[in-house]
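FW: tagging you since you asked about this chain on Friday. Here's the raw sequence from the shared folder, copied in full. Didn't touch anything.
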Amino acid sequence: MNNSAQPVVAYIASAYRALSDSKLESEEFAHGLIMFAVPDYGIQFRCRVEADPMRLELGALFALLRFLKTKLAHVKIPALEVRSSSPRLVFSLGSRVGPFAESTEWNLLLLEYTKEMEVTARYVAPRDNCCLLAPTELPSQPESEHPLLRPTIEDRTKFTMKPFQRGIDL
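HL: got it, structure written out here
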């Protein structure tokens, strides 16, 4: 990889909290939340997920990588710097230990996603983690900017607004 390439900076995070609304609990809403943000592209994503804390962090990372590979395939991203508030994930990814040890399923999946881009990890304090901000706190894109997302006809026809979803299992 070209080490002189300026990396795209992305933030990931996860949260796991008990539901305080008994109606949501009775409808089996997921307790976890995975998030990622790519501020330079004006992208912020959140999804309810049911998993343990480490799998939530891994889910946030792989959701980001899949999004970049599928929805921004036309954008050349030679290097990605992932910033996380999870020291365990940053250490695991940077040292290739734990879930990213050689020949583990997570490492093999990571290698699949990172064939064409260099991925590095860096710790960021929670107060500086952009994906933990409210969407209104992120800067908007200038009007002269063209959006990077290019929805297809299929995307436009299959999209439905679902304000409340139970979440997915990881």
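FW: The chain has a mean pLDDT of 79.
HL: agreed, and The beta strands are 8-16, 32-38, 43-50, 79-84, 118-123, 168-169.
FW: great, closing this out.
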